[in-house]
From TrEMBL:
It catalyses: L-homoserine + NAD(+) = L-aspartate 4-semialdehyde + NADH + H(+); L-homoserine + NADP(+) = L-aspartate 4-semialdehyde + NADPH + H(+). SUPFAM superfamilies: ACT-like, Glyceraldehyde-3-phosphate dehydrogenase-like, C-terminal domain, NAD(P)-binding Rossmann-fold domains. This is Homoserine dehydrogenase. It comes from Microbacterium thalli. Catalyzes the conversion of L-aspartate-beta-semialdehyde (L-Asa) to L-homoserine (L-Hse), the third step in the biosynthesis of threonine and methionine from aspartate. PANTHER family: HOMOSERINE DEHYDROGENASE (PTHR43331:SF1). Pathway: Amino-acid biosynthesis; L-methionine biosynthesis via de novo pathway; L-homoserine from L-aspartate: step 3/3; Amino-acid biosynthesis; L-threonine biosynthesis; L-threonine from L-aspartate: step 3/5. The lineage of its organism: Bacteria, Bacillati, Actinomycetota, Actinomycetes, Micrococcales. Keywords: Amino-acid biosynthesis, Methionine biosynthesis, NADP, Oxidoreductase, Sodium, Threonine biosynthesis. Residues 358-435 form the ACT domain. Pfam families: ACT, Homoserine_dh, NAD_binding_3. Belongs to the homoserine dehydrogenase family.
Amino acid sequence: MTDYRRLRVALLGAGAVGSQVAALLLKHGDELADRAGAALDLVGISVRDLDAPRDVDLPRELLTTDPEPLLVGSDIVIELMGGIEPARTSILQAIGAGADIVTANKALLATHGPELFEAADQVGASIYYEAAAAGAIPIIRPLRDSLAGDRVQRIMGIVNGTTNYILDRMDREGSDFADVLADAQALGYAEADPTADVEGYDAAQKAAILASLAFHTAVPLNAVHREGITQIDADMMDAARKAGYVIKLLAVCERLSDTEVSPSGETISVRVYPALVPREHPLASVHGANNAVFVQAEAAGDLMFYGAGAGGVQTASAVLGDVVSAARRHIAGGVGVGESTRANLPVVPIGHVTTRYQITLEVEDRPGVLAAVAGLLSDGRVSIATLEQTIVTGDDVHTARLVIGTHTAREQDLSDTVGTLSASGVVTRVVSVLRVEGD
């Protein structure tokens, strides 16, 4: 091997991703050195339990339960522990010692990103996080670098593989949510406690990261509107299919014009919820546990990034790409490239968003009901585009199910109108309200 400068690389965490990163660093060290222009010496792996089972066999002498020497003696620190603490404290300590950071920790970046980036700027270090938003899919660099001279208008992303797997099977097989979730857990796509995935927390963290990059604005996690998929059932899937849609859990980051909030009119919306996507849209064809991010930019037009959103070896690919980038920066010298978050655009609440909707109602099957529903919608500034009625008969009770597609409406108007419908006495039950995205 060429006589390269040697860089010390430390790894925090040896779980599904960390163990693969370590194995690939050791296996392909010479090749990575040729790409980076520096030898990447893995000097230690910090773990909680030396004897825990791991996906790959790692040299015992590299394992340690004391991260301190690794944090203060390395050029590059790879953090793959996950969670907020001790990851945050360890990263700040490593930055203080002059190390560059590579991380896949979406929760940490979504909650403490500005603090970490500021700490890195103070010492001229860099934080790399390609694996934090969409696994193996390269989306961070395109947003941060390739599209830095463009104006991103909108991002729609399927950024959680677990929920996409569940919704995809429900759509294609007509299966129930609980049954598919159990299968996902058995296959390792879902955790024993799937809350972070199915309630949209994971996707919301990724949405905050993507929006911060796309709109050059620090987006706090609590500004992201979040809804999960636990209320999606077979009937909703069937209604979506009949209307020409598929249901996907989407992260939507959008540039809006809203003079109520900003004198310039420039605002952004960041939200996560199950939405109806037209079957001809590229995101509708994302199956299984795959992810995809659809970007609309003013000059570049429509761009789509597709691939594996999770998996140990797949995510390790993105991590190692960042390691090579960090090594090249060390060789070139100079300070790290900071984050561009100076636009400071206001993040508006969900009520300011304008889109189309599909409303499903149960009503009594009697004369005048349709007219009453239409009147209440009109009073609420919600216009009907399509309507399908199904009669349900049983136990001497005759009810009708109405599936109403709307024209574009403001979220606050729609929400208020649905509340009025629910309390009107005309509607026996509001079954569901789904937004339409991607028209």
